[in-house]
Amino acid sequence: MFVYGASVLINVLLEQISTKVLAVFLAVLIIVRVLQVLREAFFLPPGPWGLPILGSLLSLKGDLHLHFRDLTYKYGSLISTRLGTQLIVVLSDYKMIRDAFRKEEFTGRPTTEFTNILGGYGVINTAGKLWKDQRRFLHDGLRHFGMSYLGSRKAQMENRIMKEVEEFLCVLKARKDRPIDLNPVLAVSISNVICDVLMSVRFSHNDKRFIRFMDLIDEGFKLFGSLQAALFIPFLKYLPGHNSTREKISKNRAEMGEFLQETIDEHRKTFDPSHLRDLLDTYLYEIQKANEEGTGHHLFEGKDHDRQMQQIMGDMFSAGMETIKSSLQWAVLFMLHNPEVMKSIQEEMDQVIGRQRLPKLEDLAYLPVTESTILEVLRISSIVPMGTTHSPTRDVKLNGFHLPQHAQVVPLLHAVHMDPTLWDEPDKFNPSRFINAEGKVQKPEYFLPFGVGRRMCLGEILARMELFLFFSSLLHSFNISVPEGETLPSLKGIAGVTITPNAFKVSLKPRPMEWENAATTIRPAGSH
Ligand code: HEM
């Protein structure tokens, strides 16, 4: 009886003590966390504090890049804010962006729900040694296949692009006078350029495989959009519905993976180390070499070889397709709004190139109006308005402020390109701002459409080649106008990872070449 009574007493005491201990423990934890947040906030760049857990999410309205731009007006060119539990640091001064992104410690990428799904594979969302090795390898590979301003291989890349340009023009010519939305035609042509370099794959227009491929990518973008909330408030991932989105993403990725794996398997069967056909072959070569040297298990930091190749192909495709397609759509849209600019480009090309052939890369140096127009399109549309988010690889100091390792660092390229202290009337489409007093094209150091620093765009040279060859050939071959009875399409874009114009149609009137009138056939430039 006594023993029973004592044990009840001890239990009651323990319960009381443990409840109290737990309460004290929780209180200490909360105080420590609050102190940590306050300490962190004290040394952070200025910006709105927002609410606990939600941060400034409730004040978000409209496009994120415009929200950030408005904050920079209020707090300065280096700001911090919280979206949910994520700390965001926004840089909008080009010198600050350039100086920071040159440094090794700004080459990290944030860890998010998105990067967790990718599992550390690829190049765009990796950091550290894997990223560095992959970036160098891809850079060398792209140069080998002609992504270079100099050398004989440049012609090889030019030919690849011109093959697609000519097919593109043929499809447009076949439309006769009927108004056309250029988007789906451009999607196939631009995909073919990058898929040819990556894995010698070409799709025909109306190809069912291609339509499915694009559907998966489009759906992927939308599904990731619906995951966005969980990127900012991580505990939302425990809510019902989140898992089904995640599962759908994984299912889609598996289907994309299957398509890419089939291509990898086909390449393996026909692989010849003395004749590397594309980037995929250079990967197979690297893997073979490492296996022969007994270092295969170290390659890609020990990650699965096939999965890494799949993700690299996926990364390069998504980085190199949408960006070029959107830029070309913006270029056409600005021509509809500025027909006098289109006319002066056409006059320049008629004079310099003549009407016997399509433009070549070597003409670019003699076409300042055409080149400056492409630059102005890149500036004013800022299709990647917030670059790609970086993250410090360790706690760092920037302009006297403390940035913790987990911060997401956003280079606000849109704000740089729209800064009235750098550009005269930045809202105005004015290609001549890129032409100096001697009539030569000049790019100021604050022109950053491809980012800057160690992680700047890996495909810039290819992008410039494609933009010039597609845009100049289109204008050399057609007069572009708004279809009869339709209004001028809006210049307001849809902001996602990139900014794309709303769907619009154009009317194309052929500008006949001399070879099309003459009895003899003159082969267009680039089709050797
Ligand atoms: C008009 C076309 C393009 C624009 C405006 C553009 C712009 C950009 C920007 C702003 C970045 C982020 C830089 C940073 O993180 O600081 C980037 C990264 C990247 N771009 Fe492009 N890009 C274009 C075309 C291409 C093409 C054609 C390719 C592929 C051949 C490509 C491949 C990449 C890759 C792989 C990265 C990630 C680099 C890394 O994480 O180290 N881009 N691009």
From TrEMBL:
SUPFAM superfamilies assigned: Cytochrome P450
Keyword set, alphabetical order: Heme, Iron, Membrane, Metal-binding, Monooxygenase, Oxidoreductase, Transmembrane, Transmembrane helix
InterPro entries linked: Cyt_P450, Cyt_P450_CS, Cyt_P450_E_grp-I, Cyt_P450_sf, Cytochrome_P450_fam2
Alphabetized GO MF terms: heme binding; iron ion binding; oxidoreductase activity, acting on paired donors, with incorporation or reduction of molecular oxygen, reduced flavin or flavoprotein as one donor, and incorporation of one atom of oxygen; steroid hydroxylase activity
Matching PROSITE patterns: CYTOCHROME_P450
Keyword Membrane in annotation: yes
Biological process, per Gene Ontology: organic acid metabolic process; xenobiotic metabolic process
Listed name of the protein: Cytochrome P450 18a1
Family note: Belongs to the cytochrome P450 family.
GO cellular component: cytoplasm
Transmembrane intervals: 17-35
Family annotation (PANTHER family): CYTOCHROME P450 18A1, CYTOCHROME P450 508A4-RELATED
